[in-house]
Here is the input.
Amino acid sequence: MNKWSKVLLLTFFIGLIGSVAGGIEWHQTTDFSIYEDENEDELIMELGDEPVDSIEIADTQTMTTTERDDAVLATIHPPESSVPATRLSVVWSLPEGLWYDVQLVIEPAKADSASFSDPVTNTYSDARFSGGEPNDVSTNSQIFLDFPLGSDHAATATLIQAQQAASNETIEYETRLTAHSLTGESIEVTSPFEIEYSQF
Here is the structure.
């Protein structure tokens, strides 16, 4: 290998290493925020100052928001229902960083008391490692979404189908978000909620 070829090869590897290092350190640069509108009938999601999505909050629904270490987990659900099938929406946001092993779990506290429809998920990010679609490893009685590297904000919608035994009962559920960052941080946010079912 001549001297010129060695210089080109060295330049290539320096550029490659810089690109990889820059990619690892480069994460979302725009804040993601969620808030209820003035009429409290819609959840607005913004990336910076730009609205990116919204979720209707029906009169029969309530929103529970849990925050921990700058991570936000919001759950929109009905506090009570006269029918076994109810709509559930979950929105979450992680603080600035590059996150991996990002997982969202939704399940009833009592096994086999409810089942879930196939979840629909939208992800929001301006990161170079933008995550993409989660790996859905859900079972009939649990939503389990495993998000790829770089996932930091998302919204998931599903239907909860309570079993017949839930009639005239209050069923407890839990939404749980866990994640790890390349800087060594770990986050776990849980948002328990319950639905009081009348006879159906």
